[in-house]
Design a protein that fits this description.
This protein is α+β, with helices and mostly antiparallel strands. The protein has three domains: 2-33, no CATH class; 44-129, no CATH class; 140-278, no CATH class. The protein is 51% helix and 12% strand. It has a two-stranded antiparallel sheet. It has a two-stranded antiparallel ribbon with strand order 3-4. It has a two-stranded parallel ribbon with strand order 5-6. A hairpin with a 2-residue loop joins strand 7 and strand 8. The longest helix has 23 residues, at 142-164.
Length: 282
C-alpha cells in the first residue's frame, strides 16, 4: 500500500479494487483474479510503475549504469558492452520476481562502434547497427535518422490519399487537422531531433501536407493558405507550419530539460547547447 502513504486519497480506491480477488464471470463459470492490474482501471499505469520501481532501483544499485530510464515498461540502459549480457540477465531476473517477462525479441542492442560479437547476448535480441527508435524518436547515424523521418512524409502522403476517398470535405479535414498536422507527431520529432537533421523533413512535410489539404478542401490561393496557418483565435484554421517551428521546438525542448539533465550529466550541457548532436549549424 505504498500508494496510500504517498497519495492518501488514492488508498480507498486501491483497497476497493485490489484487496480482494475480483470475479470474472463467463456463463456458468466464475474465475477469480488474484494478481496483476485490471484492464480499464484508470490507476493501473500508476500502480504498475509503483510495482516496477523497486526493481529499477535494484538494477541501479547493482550495475550503476550510465543511463537507467524507464517509461512504464519501456526501459533504456547504457552500460559497457562487455556487461550487456549480465545486464539483460539481471533485468530478466528482477522482473521475473514480479511475474513479468522480458520480451527479448523486442529488445534492441546498439553500439555505434559495434564489435563483431557481443558476449552473453541471446540470439533473440536484435542488434541495431545504424541506430534505434526510442519512444518514437530515431537515434543513431544521420542517415538512419533521416531515413526514419522520410518515412513519416511518405506515410502522410498515403494518409491524405485515403482521406480523399471519404468524398466529404468536413470530416476529412477534421481528421487531417487532428491526426496529421505538425502539431502532432511531426512536432514531437522536431522537439527530439537536432535541427540540422530536420531540414528536409519540414520542407517535404509542409509541401505534402499543403497538397493533401488542397485535395480535401480543393485549391487554396497563396493568401488563403497563409490565413489558414493562423491560430483559430486569429481567424485561421490552425494549420501550423513545421518549417517555422523547426529550430524553436528543439531549443525549447533542450532548455526545458536542462535542470534535470544537469543534475544527472553535468558535462553534457555545454554540448547540448553549443553543438547539439555534433551539429555545425541549423
Amino acid at each position: 500500500m505504498t500508494s496510500t502513504y504517498q497519495e492518501p486519497g488514492l488508498g480507498p480506491w486501491v483497497r476497493y479494487g485490489y484487496a480482494q480477488p475480483s470475479e470474472h464471470i463467463h456463463g456458468p463459470y466464475t474465475l477469480l483474479s488474484y494478481t496483476g492490474i485490471y484492464p480499464g482501471d484508470p490507476y493501473s499505469p500508476l500502480l504498475f510503475c509503483l510495482g516496477l520501481h523497486s526493481a529499477i532501483l535494484h538494477i541501479q544499485r547493482l550495475l550503476s549504469p550510465r543511463l537507467n530510464l524507464w517509461y512504464a515498461d519501456d526501459g533504456t540502459l547504457i552500460v559497457p558492452h562487455e556487461q550487456t549480457g549480465a545486464t539483460l540477465s539481471l533485468v530478466s531476473s528482477r522482473l521475473g520476481a514480479l511475474d513479468l517477462a522480458v520480451a527479448q525479441h523486442k529488445c534492441r542492442f546498439w553500439w555505434p562502434n559495434l564489435p563483431s560479437s557481443v558476449p552473453g547476448l541471446p540470439t533473440e535480441v536484435q542488434i541495431a547497427r545504424d541506430g534505434i527508435v526510442h519512444i518514437g524518436s530515431p537515434i543513431g547515424s544521420d542517415a538512419f535518422v533521416q531515413h526514419k523521418l522520410a518515412r513519416l512524409v511518405s506515410d502522410t502522403e498515403q494518409f491524405f490519399n485515403q482521406l480523399v476517398e471519404l468524398q466529404d470535405p468536413q470530416p476529412a479535414f477534421h481528421i487531417a487537422l487532428f491526426c496529421a498536422s505538425s502539431s502532432c507527431k511531426v512536432l514531437y520529432l522536431l522537439r527530439t531531433t537536432p535541427p540540422h537533421l530536420t531540414r528536409c523533413l519540414v520542407k517535404n512535410f509542409d509541401f505534402v501536407f499543403r497538397q493533401g489539404v488542397q485535395k480535401v478542401l480543393h485549391s487554396f490561393t497563396e493568401a488563403a493558405w497563409h490565413t489558414a496557418t493562423l491560430p483559430f483565435d486569429r481567424g485561421g484554421l490552425g494549420l501550423t507550419c513545421a518549417t517555422d517551428l523547426r529550430v524553436a521546438a528543439y531549443l525549447g525542448s533542450v532548455f526545458a530539460t536542462i535542470p534535470r539533465t544537469y543534475r544527472r550529466h553535468e558535462a553534457v550541457i555545454p554540448i547540448l547547447i553549443y553543438r547539439p548532436h555534433g551539429a555545425r549549424g541549423t
